[in-house]
Design goal:
Elements (H helix, E strand, L loop, with lengths): L6 E3 L5 E3 L12 H13 L24
Antiparallel strand pairs: 1-2
Length: about 70
Amino acid sequence: MLAPALFDYDQAGIAYYKPDRNTGTEPLNDQATIDFRLAYQRCPTHAIKRSDQPFNARPFSETGKA
């Protein structure tokens, strides 16, 4: 995991963005931006998505319920 402060895996092994529970609503500070960019560019599965707007998604939870 290239950015463990930003990403973690759930019990099924699916990665999620920790600071805002995968909603895309938490802005990145300068250091987090560097860490995010590195993880984004080097993600072998291209699973990391980025956007300038919040995602239309329910917050991540381990149980699948928000």
